[in-house]
What we know:
The structure holds two protein chains of two kinds.
Chain A: H1 6-33, H2 38-71, H3 82-111, H4 117-144
Helix pairs in contact in A: 1-2, 1-4, 2-4, 3-4
Chain B: E1 2-3, E2 8-10, H1 12-18, H2 24-31, H3 35-42, E3 46-47, H4 50-60, H5 64-67, E4 68-70
Antiparallel strand pairs in B: 1-3, 2-4
Amino acid sequence: MYEMTSKEMMAWVQLLGVVVVCGWLAWDALNGGAVGTTAAIAQKLLWAVGAMVGFNIVGAIIGTILVSIAQREELKDEPADERDHAVAARSLRNSGIVTSIVAALALIPLALGVDANLAIYALFVAPVIGGTINAASELYYYRTM
Amino acid sequence: MGKGQANVSNSIRTLRFHAGEMTQAALAKQVGVTRQTIVAIEQGRYSPSLEVAFRIAHAFGVPLDEVFQWTPPGPDAD
């Protein structure tokens, strides 16, 4: 039987939060929300960051309740042991590599003269992708090591 | 510590059986790791640190080589 730990549940919540918030941003961009002043775009992305933080807090509470009901056992966050540290280190490494690559790639269109507002999006997208890779890596390593 | 190696095996399941069907949770508590880590070690997915390996052996009251066995890689291995 698949038994989900608190750390895995949080990784799923983080992934779901990214999907929801990026879905909202994509929908907004398709409706002309991707253009505007630098300040306006930065404010929107700040709201997106806030939404992700809020989603993670609420998602953690709801997720804990739902998983506890499904597993018929209270889901507790146990203290991290050496395997947790190993998983976290590998996931963080993957996240760092991807964040660096995305941030570096964002310089290419800027160098080609694309609208400088792209840099604001890159500031948002690079760490979000890095966080997503971190969460996905944790889920992968917890199942394979 | 690190990802489990194919040539490292263990007898934790057998030792738990001989220890009065000790649960993974009870062993985890004695060793000071999570139950998921004991599951991963038992299934050979994760090789523990030397300290945790000694703690597991101590929990069963047996020498380390009764818990973990290592087979040298064959001549074809890289």
